[in-house]
Amino acid sequence: MEATIFASIVAIFGILVAWAGIKTVPQGQEFTVERFGRYTHTLRPGLHFIVPFIDRIGAKMNMMETVLDVPSQEIITKDNAMVKVDGVVFFQVLDAARASYEVNQLQLAILNLTMTNIRTVMGSMDLDELLSQRDRINGQLLHVVDEATQPWGVKVTRIEIRDIQPPRDLVDSMARQMKAERDRRALILEAEGARQSAILKAEGQKQAAILEAEGRREAAFRDAEAREREAQAEAEATRMVSDAISSGNVQAINYFVAQQYLTTFKEFAHSPNQKILMMPVEATGIISTLGGLSELAREAFAPKDGSAAPKPPAPPSRPAARPNPPPSPWGDNNGGSAT
Question: What's the pLDDT tens digit per position in 294-334?
Fold first, then answer.
């Protein structure tokens, strides 16, 4: 009976010892092992065996990437502007032993290191650079903090400035400045538009003037050509009349003079600003001119065989006209008539 109890006790003790020597490390974590208080090795994720009562777990380190909030703090910029800045830090432990034994309170150390470097980097910049160059600020902070945390077995993957809050009066001044800048740009664009419009309008007027001048030149050429042809026709008609006169045909000159005479009276009749003209007119001269025309027509339509053409009936006889006196501007009862 006593042997059975002793065996049971030994079995239970063996189970406890074995249980104390079995360690399971979850994924994403690493455990450090200490023997008599001294670091010996690191347990990676999985099932491990250690010496009970001699080895123990020193630190359980999270090996996943961790996000650390940087609280808001006030910073004085290079141009003496007070701003509030906060951000976030992303880091990952690469060496569990160094992260456990090289630094105490790893997250607090990274946080303070980031805050001091934020004041250093952003304090050396003007406010305009601070608001417009966040990528540059993030890059400088990442370089400085990552280099400082390398001895701790930590890799800082990213630092982001989350918010920058200038004072309210400074924000109002910036808004007024932005409005003035936009107004200036609007005025410049409006002036550029007016300038372009004036240039295009001047170009259009220039082209119109050129086309109009070309049109006038073409019209002048056409008018000159028409006058030239008219003069040629007139010269040809005059030459033909001259040839007829030189050949002994007196009726041709009578026809020419009568035509010009009647054309002149036709233009006088159609004149809008002359209604009454007092001038000496020989009725017998007009009748004789018409007689000359009839003679010219008779000769034109005469038979080619030499026989005499029938004569038209003679006009009624009129008393012989007296010689006309010199023309008078007021007319008289002897030789003038009112037309």
Answer: 555 565 555 555 444 445 444 444 444 444 444 444 444 44
Distant-in-sequence, close-in-space partners of 314: CB < 8 Å, separation ≥ 6: none
Q: Across residues 272-289, what is the average pLDDT?
A: 54
Residue 18, both tokens? 């074995």
Residues 103, 76: contact at Cβ < 8 Å? no
Distance CA 71, CA 162 (A): 10
What residue type is 214 in one-letter code? E
pTM attached to this predicted model: 0.53
Residue 30: CB atoms within 10 A of its CB come to 21
Gap between the Cα atoms of 66 and 115, Å rounded: 17
Interaxial angle between packed helices 283-300 and 250-269, expressed in degrees from 0 to 180 and rounded to the nearest 10: 130
Which residues make Cβ contacts (< 8 Å) with residue 12, sequence separation at least 6?
none
Give 94's DSSP letter.
S
**Cross-strand bridge partners of residue 75:** 83
Q: What is the DSSP string of 69-116?
A: EEEEEEEE-TTS-EEEEEEEEEEEES-HHHHHHSSSSHHHHHHHHHHH
Compute φ and ψ for 75, nearest 5 degrees: -130, 140
Helices in 104-167 by DSSP H: which ranges?
106-123, 127-132, 134-149
Let me know: does 153 contact 96? Beta carbons within 8 Å: yes
Q: Decide: 70 and 89 in contact? Cβ < 8 Å.
A: yes
User: What single-letter DSSP state applies at residue 226?
Assistant: H
One DSSP character per residue, 149-181 reads: HGGGTEEEEEEEEEEEE--HHHHHHHHHHHHHH
CA nearest 261: which of 234, 245, 282, 235?
282
pLDDT of residue 10: 76
